[in-house]
Each structure stands twice: as structure tokens, then as C-alpha cells.
Amino acid sequence: MQRSAVILRSATAALAREPQKGSATLFAEQVCGATALVRVSHASPARLLPMMPAAAERAGGAWCALGSFGGGLLGGDEVDLKISVGAGASLALVTQASTKVYRAKRDKRPAVQRLEARVGAGGLLVFAPDPLVPFAESWYKQRLSFRLQDCKEEAGRTAEDGSQEASAPLASASAVVVDWIGAGRVAAGERWAFDSYSSRTEFRWQTESTGGSSSSTASQPDLVEALELGVGNSGLRSAMPESVAGFDAALTVVAAGPRAEAVAARLRIAAVLLAARAGARVAPRHRASTAAEEKAEDAESFELPELSGRIAMGVTAGVKAAGATYGGSVTVARIMADRTEDVYRLLHACLKPLAAALGSAPYSDRVHGHGLMAVDDSRERQQLGVSKGLSASVARSANASSLTQLSLGQQMALSQLTDATLPTGGFAHSGGVEAASQLGLLGPTGGDQYQQVHDFILSAARSNHQLQGAFAMAAHRAALAAAAFSAHDAAGSSPAGDIPHRHHQGLPPSGDLEPLQEWLKLDSLLHAHLAVNDVACRASSKQGAALARVASHWHTVAHPEVPLPRPLRGHQATVFGLLAARLGLPQEVTLYALAFCGVRDAVSAAVRLNLVGPLRGVELQACILTELSEDLLRHPGRSEAAVAAAVSRAAGSSPLVDCAHAAHDLFEARLFLT
């Protein structure tokens, strides 16, 4: 009772104060073979609490807890964190408890946290916070940036006798990052009731020459993990399927670098075991690799901890970042869980190999006992669905504007672009529907299967629109700019109008890729977003390549005066935007067409998987497109600034779809490529 009173007084004091701008700086360096915190500073509302457990001192690692005044953040609070881990150092950055995000004030200013971390050669940073708990009507925004030193093998030194002495390769930096959002104050009846949540995590790898200077400081990230949820962002509150509403946690775990390889191996094993636990038939090659990885474990073989609820997990292994040249790779795990306690147990089991460097495993103090308390809340969870029936999904906006009037030629081009018989390979991919079905997320045991399929495809379509739609718009504009430059280049003049051309001055005429440098940058940035989910990335790349082949034949006949550059390769959204622009289709129509193709392919997959019948599939597609049209009508505009802002905010909005999609390669019997 006394502790509860202290917590209540602290929270009350936090709510009474005015928003603040705080900061924290933490530097960890290796001193005499052990990690020391050489600089610790903070300003309210941020707090850094150095921890010195005896086990960490013996292991040569260091721990620090991140706290805040009142245990949470107010709307308008801003916290900037700067973390530096020196060469060979090992640092665990944790939190005191869950970070609360209190209800926003009338101005709707979000609570903002920004973290910039640098990890030197051979260093290890483990960012293992407790879940973020956003209260009802709260607004939150976070930006995490990690720069990892990427080391190449040094040349051998010349010995006195003139022979070459081989030198050991320098170890690259390593990081294990957990990004975790909870459903909210579940005990108080709040579940996914926040107004806005935005998270963006960027990874960059920097190579360093022998002289100590950085040889790569590219501003564009190598990998991006972005998620945006909430009202107006097509997130969990506005599109939460009934079968998903009971999940208490959504999180992403990234393991990068040689010192995180053991964690990456355990994440891969856990994904296989959880898929089998859900009743899926795991492919033999994954069962064999799991057995081999378990046998290679130095300590005891990995086993799933005792779990009380559902956990869906998808892992993308072997991600190669564009800026990284070291021998290892990046593993990204996505997890959705019914209960927070299960997440603690799973994370503790997967991060256990870090105990050798840190003295103890992260989250070890959060796991109490080996048994579980039986809790029967199935009836409560069944009543958590936001959408009841399809009445909400067929509601039409009274202010819905009509599409741009198209000429006959544009209508013919649009019809052919969205034709189901266009050989672009769309029907070879399920968009995560098959994986969700095999994981039991769309099964009849969880409620109305038709409703679950509807909500899953709608969530996937909204997420794709929010992420890839922005790149399709930008690619459309970049293609117009390149075409305008090419048309005016032959005449020796500059493009007119508001089409941006500063990036294309001095470039040769169309026919190669030079006029499309801006388009190539967009495609590279989209790849950084998609690379963290190999299955989705592969599907986008294959469909983009197929569409590019179609475009090369189609466009030569339709517009021989403005040839497409060759070779043309890219992701589906950027190639789609390029082709639509060259066909003369407006930007708004391009967005509608791209969304239509995605929904059509997903519904077709559901029909072929026997999740819905052919006639119900027609109804399903009509309902989804009707509700999706409200998202498509929120067009950001054609201006250069509006399109650039849309790309900078591009993020997925359905962690469950991403989680299920990433698990597709685990299954033995698959109808679809992805």
C-alpha cells in the first residue's frame, strides 16, 4: 500500500507539471579491460541511473537505467538521448519500468523521444526497455538512430624478414535493440486507445580507415523500421481486427553484428518453435537448421519458456545492409503477444547469451518463477474487437470527391495497368494472408473467419498505402521531372512549370538511367524500409522486375518518342509510379490503381486458400475498397514539399501483418511464393 501511494503521488506530480525539454548523455568506454561510464548527465524529465551489479563488473560490462520524472511523459515533453559506446565496450541500457505516455493536452502536442547512439569497433549496445504504455488520448513520437562502426580486415604488416604477417580482422560494432509498445492500461479498460503513435528506427554502418577517419557518412539510412499507428494513420485503433484486439504487445527486436549472432540464432529457433506450437507445418530445412543451431549452442540447448497465451513471431534473417561490409548480417524479429509476461519470458530466453558480456541477461529481473498463473480472460478478449460486422467497413464518406476526369486514352491505359491478366506475378504472392492462416490468426476458432480475413486484408492494404503509396507518388513526380528534362534537353532549354529539375541538370537525354537519379534514390530508400522484412522485400522486388519487363514492351508501343531507361529495375511501388506517370495517369489515380491491385491480389489469395468462397470474395473486395477509399482520399497534394513530407513520414501501420508475413518461409506446404 505504501509503495502504491508513492507511485500515485509521483504520477500526480508529473501530471501537474508543465511540459519540459530534457536531455541525457551517456558515454561508455573500455578502461583497463572493463567498461566504465565516463560521462553521465541528464536534465529533467530524463534521468539516467547508473547500475553497478557485481556480476556486470566481473564480466566487464556496464548497465544504466533510463527513467523519467513521474515514470512517464506528458504531451509536449521532449527528451533527447545521446549514447556512445567506445571500441570494445559493452553497455546495457534499460528502463526502470514501463514508460507511461499520459493523455495529451488540448493542443495535442506529442511526447517526443529521440535517441542517437554510436557504437565503436567491437563494441556492444543492448537497448532493452520495458514496454511503452500509451494512455487513452495520448500522442507519442520517437526517433531512434544507431550508427555502427563497420570494420574491414586490415592488411598484414611487413615483418623484418620481408614476409607478410597476417593480422586478425577488426570486429565490427554490435547492437541488440528492442522496440516495444504495449496495448495501454489494460487493467483500466484501455486497450489500443491512444490517439497517435509514431516510431522510426534507423541503422547506419560506417567504415573507418586506418587513419581513424570515417569513410562513409551517408545521410540516407541503410535500414529503416517505421511504424505509425492511431487515429488518422490507419492504425490499430481504427483498423484493429477482432482476432487481433486481444494482443497486449507488439515489438521488434533487431540483432546486428558479430557479438549479437548468438541472440540472432535464438530468435530464429524461437520463430520455428512458435510456428510449430501454433500448429503450422514447419519446413524440414528449418527444423534441421534449428537442430543444428541448438547443437552449436555453447550452453544448454534453447527451449521455449512456459507461455500462457498466443505469440506470433516472424523473423527475417541474413539482412545485408547496403553500408555494411562485415561478414555477419542483421536479424529482425517481429512479435505479437497476448500477454506481457510471455514477452518478458521470451525475450529473457532469446537474450540470455548476452549474460557473458553483461554479467546477467536482460529482463532476468522481470521473470519471477518458472510456473504461470492460470488466468481465464478469453471472454473479455473476445469482446475487445473494434469492428462488429461489416457495417462500419461499407460506410461512405459524405465528402468523398470523385476521381480526376480521365481522357479515353487514360482510361484505356488505366484498364490495362490494373488488368488481372497483366503478367506481373501478383497472383504468386499472398501479402501475408497464407502465413496468417497457417499461424492460426485467420482460423474459425477465433471468431468469424470472414470478418478476420476482411480485417487482415484491410489492415495490410492500409499499411501498404501508408508506406509504399508515398514512394509511388514520389516516383510519379520524379518520372515526370526526368521526362520533362529529356524533352527539353534536346532543344537546349530547361523544363518549365513547377516540375523540379535541379537534380537533373547536365544529365544526358533519356535512354539510360542518368535522368532518373532522383527515382533511383527513392527506390534505394524504399529498399531500406522493406529490407527488414525479407519476404515482403522479395515480393516487391519480383513484382517490380516483372512490371518493368512489361513496361519496356508496352511503353515502346504507346510512347516511342520518350523511351524508358534501360536497364530498369526497382520495387513495385516505384516502378508502378514511374510507368503510370509515363502513361499520363494523374497522381491520385496512380494511388488508387496501386491500392486496387494489392487488394485484388490478397482477396484472390484468400479465395484460393479456401478462406472465403468466390462469390463472398467479390463482396469482400468491394467492402475493403470502399473503406480504403477514405484513406486514399486523404491525398497529401502534388507539390514537391508535400510529396517529400509524405516520403519522410512513410511507415507501416500493421505490426501483425508484418509479423505474419515475415514467417512465410518457415512453412513446409505453401501455395504462394510469399
UniProtKB/TrEMBL annotation:
Coiled coil: none
Domain of life: Eukaryota
Any GO MF annotation of the entry: nickel cation binding
Keywords for the protein's UniProt record, in alphabetical order: Chaperone
Family designation: Belongs to the UreD family. Belongs to the UreF family.
PANTHER family, sorted: UREASE ACCESSORY PROTEIN D
Protein name: Urease accessory protein UreD
